[in-house]
Design a protein that fits this description.
Strand order of the largest sheet: 1-2
Shape: globular
Distance between the termini: 23 Å
Helix content: 25-40%
Largest sheet: 2 strands, parallel
Strand content: 5-15%
Bound molecules: S-adenosylmethionine
Structural class: mainly alpha
Number of strands: 2
Number of domains: 2
């Protein structure tokens, strides 16, 4: 998952800058505070001793539980198929986080938001 504010495009720069600053990574604990999508912690996970991810939002917990906390390959195709075939419906996320809902925070595309069928306004 990617959205405005994600550090996906900065991840290579961050890795380079942090390596230059702290040197060897293998014995380091990396703290990804305000982890969001988890892309920063994921970038460092293969190289450091431990990654600690923190975020106030539950969506971030779910993402980071998988990307940071999971070490077993996940057979995700069936889950992905189910998610991709959900009926579209606007709800809380559409209202508050998309252009369609005129929310102040426009983290997600309208198409992504229309998948939020579990949250009713
Ligand atoms: C710009 S976003 C995510 C940035 C993240 N590094 C990424 O690349 O996806 C900022 C995150 O900060 C989190 N956040 C904001 N205030 C927070 C707080 N007081 N405690 C923990 N997380 C917070 C939000 O929930 C959001 O996921």
């Amino acid at each position: 998952m990617n959205y405005i504010g994600s550090k996906l495009k900065l991840s290579s720069f961050l890795e380079e800058a942090i390596r230059e600053t702290v040197g060897e990574l293998q014995d380091k604990v990396f703290c990804d505070i305000f982890a969001g999508t988890g892309i920063v912690g994921r970038t460092f996970k293969p190289y450091v001793k431990t990654v600690i991810a923190n975020d106030i939002e539950h969506y971030s917990y779910v993402l980071n539980r998988n990307y940071i906390g999971n070490y077993t390959p996940l057979d995700y195709k069936e889950y992905l198929n189910t998610l991709n075939n959900l009926a579209t419906k606007s709800g809380f996320i559409t209202k508050h986080y998309s252009l369609a809902g005129h929310g102040e925070r426009q983290y997600f595309s309208d198409e992504q938001c229309f998948k939020d069928r579990y949250y009713k306004i």
